[in-house]
Amino acid sequence: MKNERILLSSPHMSDEGYEQAFVKEAFDTNWIAPLGANVTGFENELADFVKTGHAAALVSGTSAIQMALKAAGVGKDDIVICQSLTFSATANPIIYQGAIPVFVDSDEETWNLDPRALKKALEKYPEAKAVIVVHLYGLSAQLDEIISLCEEYDVTLIEDAAESLGTTYKGRYTGTFGKYGVYSFNGNKIITTSGGGMLVSEDEERIEKVRFWSTQARDKARHYQHSEIGYNYRMSNIVAGIGRGQLKVLNDRIAKKNYIHEFYKRELSNISQISFMPENDWSKSNFWLSAIILDNIDPNYLMDELEKENIESRPIWKPMHMQPIFEEYDFIGTNIAEKLFETGVCLPSDTKMTEEDLYRVTNTIKRAIANAN
Ligand SMILES: *Cc1c(COP(=O)(O)O)cnc(C)c1O
């Protein structure tokens, strides 16, 4: 089939049918709802994979960020420092909690939270309750510097690792460095449950508390007794079954994403107008999405050329401090995030892509750049 659409990142179930086997087990035992073996299994297996203590399976990464903020004691009018270059779901939960975001720039070495700008933000807002760092596209932030600043100012570090499941920083998985880590299993992520998220922490008591809040905060009583506001945020046993199956192929997906990134580098790195995402010897990325930076070429031009060939591409995330809904909030930094947004393009990184698909992408880019010159 010629010119079938090539996607950025779409669901990729195992060839072995692991996901269906776990879901079938849920049907066979009638554990359709509420919780059940798949939820506990998925929590334990994910915690084992990333080598952390405890995990709570929730309906989304977004709800996991909100629960992390709540568990950190973030409430009305508290300051939360948040990486600006990210997807809005990182920042929205700050508003859900009635708190006030302060956005911080990225650095060129990681594309993530710039420790120098974070230091300035903490000097200006020493009362901040939490810091949210993101590991965009699977690239790891400079965790050592960020952790020591959070310790110095006694703020809780939350890692939005929605895009970086499987990425390591100095040999340890991202998402396990902060007091709380968040993963997403949305349809476009490296593994998916059709929709879902996970909150991880070494603090068993806090994770237990999140499980309590996210199942309507029912006190221990026969009747319905509530002394706290609850949420309906728990992952279902069916969805968790998909997650257990997907975990079995996570390493394969990481390997393929790395292969895709290497392919693009090999084919495109001799084009002088193209540069690649930063790589650091202290981190191993899952390369959830491969992104490039264009020099003197309009990203919209390249994206249009790709679209003509039925190839999906996207700009880099538009920073939060540039979003109409967040424009009233403070921003600390210069123009790094803005420059990345204005010059970057995310390339198809779908793990189902064939060699032919990959060449279709790179040949289209080569042709477009040659015609632009
Ligand atoms: C996908 C994503 C989220 C939200 O996760 P959902 O499971 O879709 O709610 C949060 N932050 C980042 C950086 C993401 O990419």
Automatic annotation (TrEMBL):
Transmembrane portions of the chain: none
Gene3D superfamilies reported for this sequence: Aspartate Aminotransferase, domain 1, Type I PLP-dependent aspartate aminotransferase-like (Major domain)
Keyword Transferase: yes
Keywords: Aminotransferase, Pyridoxal phosphate, Transferase
Pfam families attached to this UniProt entry: DegT_DnrJ_EryC1
Keyword Ribonucleoprotein: no
GO molecular function (one): transaminase activity
Family, as annotated: Belongs to the DegT/DnrJ/EryC1 family.
Protein name as annotated: Aminotransferase class I/II-fold pyridoxal phosphate-dependent enzyme
Species this protein is from: Enterococcus viikkiensis
